[in-house]
Design brief:
Layout (H helix, E strand, L loop, with lengths): L2 H19 L2 H15 L7 H11 L3 H20 L6 H21 L4 H29 L6 H14 L23 H12 L6 H14 L1 H22 L2 H6 L4 H13 L5 H26 L8 H16 L13 H14 L15 E5 L14 E5 L24 E3 L4 E7 L18 E7 L4 E7 L11 E2 L4 E4 L11 E6 L16 E2 L16 E4 L4 H6 L7 E8 L2 E12 L5 E4 L6 E7 L2 E8 L6 H7 L2 E3 L5 E8 L10 H5 L9 E8 L2 E8 L2 E9 L5 E7 L4 E10 L1
Antiparallel strand pairs: 1-2, 1-11, 2-9, 3-8, 4-5, 4-7, 5-6, 6-9, 10-11, 12-13, 12-23, 13-14, 14-15, 15-16, 16-17, 18-19, 19-20, 20-21, 21-22, 22-23
Helix pairs in contact: 2-3, 2-5, 3-9, 4-5, 4-6, 5-6, 5-7, 6-7, 8-9, 9-10, 10-12, 10-13, 12-13, 12-14, 13-14
Length: about 725
């Protein structure tokens, strides 16, 4: 370990010890303060916030005015009894901090400057609250730091008339600049220092190193955005010296970070948007500078706010798929969170069940060679075949000899029957009805907002009528040969309009297995593929219906030696989501039911948490009655890699790179799984409890073997 690493380790370790001695209420305020400072760089990290707070004390005017602004925000929100979340408070405190910095940049500390800071902070809160309400409700946009830009502009304009305030020297710390640096680096470091109203090389270097330590993606975006913006600005101006001297170029940095990795999931496209945003901002920056300079004031962050909001408004309107709906502490963590949900779940595509029992084959798949074309390409036809590949026995020209003729057709969804018809006689073999293509049919409306149409029902066999409510598995009628049907089969399609034969849309099946018992997950069925439905078990579901405050105590063994004893407890968030937790309250493993599966959704907590083993063991459990079933799962990278791992950064370019695929096999009340990470094989075995949860978990790799054994269950 290098000396600087030892120093930083000791420093942060001591900081953690001190934190534990601080009362909880005070700790909350300290965390809030530090998070407010880290928000200046679009991150949520108390250590980064602490570094930025320390930096501001290079100029005590900036530091003190910033703290006064922050405390004013705390007091005023409490005075007004504002019910605000952590996110909305960050907006208020973030803008107030910047206003405080802007006042401290030009005025020395005095009674009047303190009064100005407090009143300006109140005005910032009022403006932030109004804009937050309007922007979030009507435009679905963030406020960014528009309140800071407006209030600071007003202060700088008004202060020209205030002779009682003591004006500070704008650049009293020139010794913090390094004259030996080339102009390009001097301009870069100065731009980062301006983010704290400290335009000096040393400050910029410290900020850049802090960004590099906490987020490689943010570092890449900020540096590349600066140099791209500066290069084109210099080409327009005809001078690189003039471009490097432009103090407003920090807007390039903010735009690159915001569009490249904060409000959008880091990806090739987000990086392109960041580039385009930087290029577009050059004209805005120069145009606004011409106007603002006539008043002797800087442009602040007006170009950044304008460009980012215009991009986000357009992307929201067109429903860009990679808008970051859950902004995390850093772009890397936002990317990990997105990949976890995007690669493992699909909460949008409908997942009806198969409309039959037993084993059937796909006669026509999506976009197939006969009738599944154009607007009706998203449909399936099902038939039953024997071992010789025939759909009939004995004579081919007899309807009753077809294996699927007369077989029950089951409701694939729960919903309301909106339209039925079964008065069309079945066609003799070799004859089709091209006047009434759909034959006898039933249409069911799901409460999830779509319709399922099933066609070619047998003549006068429908057992439901308009207005009936059916559940999955309800017998609707029998498989027939009515309409445009060359042989008996079940036709099923999904549509978003109630009219017979409406345009079809994609869907998956939520209960299908293939010929060897593998669960078919998030993929289309293939022509001639043999599929059968999963029958779901209420008994198995009850084993995983955990209640709030359920507790399970496990002994942990490593290589057959007891190393720990943990208490697994069930908790609940304010939004109703459930999680497993241990004695460490910050370790949380979120779980729930997705259709007829028990799933682990996400994990937050320590890098070496035992809960990661549980995640690997049961990321998804099909609640099936079948005693022998297999499936594949993608394990999230967050279980194995830190957010700063280069593989995670590479995934912003190639999201499917190095996917960790795990295979699971459930037989009776036991699940076995295996997966490989960095060429290392992991094996898992979990034994269900007879009552609830699991009795034993075994987690092994090439080096160690861990075993959890249930010793006590409460409630």
């Amino acid at each position: 370990m290098h000396s600087w690493q030892k120093i930083s380790f000791v420093f942060f370790n001591d900081l953690l010890v001190v934190k534990k001695m601080i009362p909880k209420k005070i700790k909350q305020y300290i965390d809030s303060l530090l998070f407010s400072y880290s928000t200046l760089l679009f991150m949520h990290n108390r250590y980064l916030g602490f570094v930025l707070l320390l930096i501001t004390f290079v100029n005590h005017n900036i530091a003190i005015h910033g703290l006064i602004a922050w405390f004013t925000t705390i007091l005023f929100t409490k005075l007004m009894n504002l019910k605000i979340t952590n996110n909305s408070f960050a907006i208020y405190s973030y803008n107030s901090l910047l206003v405080g910095f802007s006042i401290g940049f030009i005025f020395k500390i005095s009674a009047l400057s303190i009064l100005m800071t407090m009143t300006a902070s109140v005005l910032t809160i009022l403006l932030s609250f109004a804009m937050f309400s309007l922007f979030s409700y009507y435009l679905r946009l963030p406020v960014l730091n528009i309140p800071f830009t407006i209030i600071s502009t007003l202060i700088y304009l008004a202060s020209a008339r205030y002779s009682s305030l003591i004006v500070d020297s704008f650049f009293p710390f020139e010794h913090l600049n390094f004259t030996f640096l080339p102009a390009s680096l001097h301009g870069l470091f100065k731009s980062f220092g301006v983010l704290l109203f400290l335009p000096y090389d040393l400050i910029g270097i410290i900020i850049l190193l802090s960004i590099l330590f906490y987020s490689r993606i943010t570092f890449f975006l900020s540096v590349s955005s600066y140099f791209i913006g500066i290069t084109f600005l210099a080409l327009y101006k005809g001078s690189f010296a003039l471009a490097y001297a432009d103090i407003s170029s920090f807007n390039f940095v903010l735009i690159g970070i915001a569009l490249g990795g904060v409000f959008l999931i880091p990806s090739k496209r987000s990086y392109l948007f960041a580039l385009l945003g930087v290029l577009a901002s050059i004209f805005v920056l120069d145009a606004v500078s011409v106007f603002w300079s006539s008043f002797g004031i800087p442009v602040f962050t007006l170009p950044f706010n304008l460009i980012v909001l215009l991009f986000l408004y357009l992307l929201n309107t067109i429903r860009h798929p990679k808008i970051n709906l859950a902004i995390k502490d850093s772009p890397e963590k936002s990317l990990l969170n997105y990949l976890n949900y995007h690669q493992r779940f699909d909460f949008i595509t409908p997942k009806p069940h198969l409309p039959f029992s037993g084993k059937w084959r796909i006669y026509q798949a999506f976009d197939d060679e006969w009738t599944h074309k154009g607007p009706w390409k998203y449909a399936y036809d099902f038939v039953i075949k024997d071992d010789d590949g025939k759909t009939f026995s004995k004579k081919e020209n007899k309807l009753k000899n077809y294996y699927c003729f007369g077989k029950p057709v089951l409701a694939p969804i729960s919903g309301t029957v909106t339209e039925v018809y079964d008065l069309l006689p079945d066609n003799p073999i070799g004859v089709v009805n091209d006047q009434k293509n759909w034959g006898n049919y039933v249409i069911i409306y799901s409460t999830l907002g779509y319709y399922i149409e099933i066609s070619h029902i047998q003549y006068k066999t429908l057992k439901v009528k308009n207005g009936d409510y059916v559940v999955v598995g309800t017998i609707l009628g029998n498989c027939g040969n009515s309409g445009y049907s060359p042989q008996p089969h079940i036709h099923m399609q999904l549509q978003y309009l109630p009219k017979l034969g409406s345009e079809t849309h994609p869907f998956y099946f939520g209960n299908a297995t293939d010929e060897v018992g593998n669960i078919i997950h998030k993929r289309d069925l293939l022509k001639d593929e043999l599929v059968s439905p999963i029958n779901f078990s209420r008994k198995l579901k009850r084993k995983f219906q955990f209640l709030l405050d359920d507790t399970f105590r496990y002994e942990i063994y490593k290589n057959d030696k007891k190393i720990n004893e943990i208490e697994l407890k069930i908790g609940m968030e304010i939004d109703g989501s459930n999680y497993f937790t241990t004695e460490k309250e910050n370790d949380k493993l979120y779980f729930g039911f997705n259709e007829n599966e028990f799933v682990i959704y996400n994990f937050t907590g320590a890098k070496k948490s035992y809960l990661k083993m549980l995640f690997c063991a049961i990321p998804r459990i099909p609640l099936a009655e079948e005693k022998n079933i297999t499936w594949q799962e993608i394990l999230p990278d967050l279980l194995f890699y830190s957010s700063q791992n280069l593989k995670i950064i590479a995934k912003s370019i190639h999201p499917n790179l190095h996917k960790i695929r795990a295979n699971y096999h459930m037989k009776n009340d036991e699940i076995q799984g295996k997966f490989t990470v960095n060429s290392e094989l992991f094996n898992i075995k979990i034994q269900f409890s007879e009552i609830k949860g699991f009795q034993e978990l075994v987690y092994t790799n090439t080096r160690d073997s861990y075993r959890w054994i249930l010793v006590e269950r409460d409630k």
